Amino acid sequence: MKLLLLEDDQILSETLEHFLTRAGYEVDVALSMEEAEDLTFDNKYDLYLLDINLPEGSGLELLESLRYAEDDTPTIFITALADIDSMAEGFKLGAIDYIKKPFDPEELLIRLKAKFKNDILYFEEIAFDQEAQVLRKNGEVIDIGNVQYKIFTTLLKNKGNVVKKETLYECLDHTSDTALRVAITKIKQRLGINIINIRAKGYMIEKV
């Protein structure tokens, strides 16, 4: 999952970024509302983690403007506030949870795991639903051949690492370098992605 964390406390933001990254999440950090707005304009996120109390405004105001722009990204608020009005407003805007400061980062991770099944792998505009065995690009289902599907999902699950040719051969009906090259070429053309050939080692999809 790719997360946007808006937290003006730099020490806390760095701590949470480190913790979430180690847990396997991709995290962009914003220290201000303006920075967060710019990041939401340029990127697609699976979850927002928004502080409510900010020097220049409120995370509630930011979420309201995002919802007005038809951004329905799930949101968890981080707050030192515990008043009912703030909580009610947040849930009205579509927040899925609150976490109250101070908190143990492990608590945040537990909440994330409870609310989101990590069955979807992402790469650029592509989402792979492992449970449903469905590939989507920009929300549209993409149908590729069974061999290409096996190769792509193997590469995606090992994103950022070289996958040996011998491993990819197991995805083929008939094992050969030519068959593997042809299959990978079809994947690149069908999905519009770059798959890197690491000479004498294998293939990889770079992290983004």
Outline the secondary-structure elements.
Layout: E1 2-6, H1 10-22, E2 26-30, H2 33-42, E3 47-51, E4 53-54, E5 57-58, H3 59-68, E6 75-79, H4 84-92, E7 95-100, H5 105-115, E8 120-123, E9 126-129, E10 134-137, E11 140-141, H6 146-157, E12 163-164, H7 165-169, H8 177-191, E13 196-198, E14 202-204
Parallel strand pairs: 1-2, 1-3, 3-6, 6-7
Antiparallel strand pairs: 4-5, 8-9, 9-10, 10-11, 12-14, 13-14
What is the gist of this entry?
By secondary structure, the protein is of the alpha/beta class. The protein is built from eight helices and 14 strands.
Largest sheet: 5 strands, parallel
Query: What is the level 1 CATH name of the largest domain?
Result: Alpha Beta
Distance from first to last alpha carbon: 12 Å
Number of helices: 8
Question: Could you name the CATH homologous superfamily of the largest domain?
Answer: Response regulator
Largest sheet strand order:
2-1-3-6-7
Radius of gyration: 20 Å
* CATH topology value of the largest domain: Rossmann fold
Structural class: alpha/beta
Number of domains: 2
- Average residue-wise pLDDT: 86
Order of helices and strands: EHEHEEEHEHEHEEEEHEHHEE
Overall strand count:
14
CATH architectural group of the largest domain: 3-Layer(aba) Sandwich
* Helix content estimate: 40-55%
Task: Pick out the low-confidence regions.
Answer: none
Shape category: elongated
